[in-house]
Specification:
The structure is a homodimer of 231-residue chains.
Chain A lengths: L26 H29 L2 H7 L4 H7 L3 H17 L11 H18 L1 H12 L6 H24 L8 H17 L1 H8 L6 H18 L6
Chain B binds a DNA duplex (30 and 30 nucleotides) through helix 1 and helix 3.
Keywords (chains A, B): DNA-binding
Pfam family, one (chains A, B): TetR_N
Protein name (chains A, B): HTH-type transcriptional regulator RutR
Chain lengths: 231, 231
Amino acid sequence: MTKADISLKGTKVQPLKKPRTELEPGARRRKKFDDKRQFILETALSVFSKYGFHGTTIEQIANSADISKTNLFYYFSNKEELYLTILENILNDWLKPITIFEEVDDPEDVLKNYIRLKLELSRDQPEASRLFCLEIIQGAPILKGYLENELKSILQDKSKVIESWVSKGKIKPINPIQLIFFIWSTTQHFADFNVQVKAITGKDLSNKKFFEETCSAIQQLIIDGLKRPRL
Amino acid sequence: MTKADISLKGTKVQPLKKPRTELEPGARRRKKFDDKRQFILETALSVFSKYGFHGTTIEQIANSADISKTNLFYYFSNKEELYLTILENILNDWLKPITIFEEVDDPEDVLKNYIRLKLELSRDQPEASRLFCLEIIQGAPILKGYLENELKSILQDKSKVIESWVSKGKIKPINPIQLIFFIWSTTQHFADFNVQVKAITGKDLSNKKFFEETCSAIQQLIIDGLKRPRL
DNA sequence: ATCTTTTCAGACCAAATGGTCTGTTTTAAA
DNA sequence: TTTAAAACAGACCATTTGGTCTGAAAAGAT
């Protein structure tokens, strides 16, 4: 299994899925198997994101998923495979938002949209965000190759879009990578540092008002901070 | 040991320290003891910040510090005490920068200064930053009380300063807490996600040019984003 | 209903790891 | 130089934990 291969497994698209009649042999079993595997993955993400790889016990995960340790090993041959599969799955969702960076569009629209999408991710997948953060902090032993290749080339691509905005005078000059980092850090902050945010504000992104307030605060700062020349 | 008590231990200020003549009995021994303890703490911070609490072995730390496991236990009675002491030490440095928020001053100066100080911390103490981040991500089991009390009240205090700027029309209306979060996240990003930053840009805050570029990018974005009314 | 394959559980194992016990060496004070 | 306390090391211990082995229960296909 290579690090670059980040395709979801076990989610083969069924042609039709006839409701009650017999399907091809083994299909029912496969589905049940895949479903349970998926369930374990979700449970494990939740635990891993709380305690980290080393801090998490296989038994903890098994208990959370209400199965025996042995049963878990029936679905995943070892702890690392389980952890790896989770990380792979996360990466997929992770880069979807950035595809909206397109040259033709208006910077303000694109940026506003992107910020919102990232913030929604922080709201809806905070555990994934934290697991990702844990991985990076600890030196990205697994994802390093991915960062240096796939991610880097995607960012270089999107940088060109931002640069074209600059050269057309649509936004103030700024290092495109820096801009992307700003958006990432400010949005992910509300997932990764969720505990701190909650301790201080008493609120959460799951609070609709707080979400909107945060979203527009970030949008405003960045949009206005990028407004054309200089006052 | 309460969580609120975050005083440095083992750094009692010596009145004078006569160079070679006899000092009070036991002083030499105490200093040697304290120095070695400090050295172990620094080594341990480095290891803990890489692998987290659970991922770190006492033996790893001992090896890194070039002492025996037994010897380490002579200086710290157990793993938790070692970890706790490190966290306490970190917190002290952590809040120094925020004290510069004072009402009388010009917002632009204060904010620029604060951003620079925080970014310097990210450059000079990235390991401390990452350990702090690890702690928060995992639910801040140790620091939660501190966040909800000390930190919260400090922030409420500083919020008033920012609010006064707003009401005087010196900056555009913004939620003060959000502004502070914005600064924290963008500056700490370069310590916590250092690996990612390096993978993509090839650079680091230790690179002087990159540091200055980053610093002024953040400063500009925030200052300009807060400029008076609205274009 | 039967039978074969899949799914699952309990007992068990070996390695890793936090921590202790005992005793030796080093060091500073006298 | 002597001596008592401090600093240190190696063997050892108990627990935790990832992972296996054997066999029983469940379930789909016929």
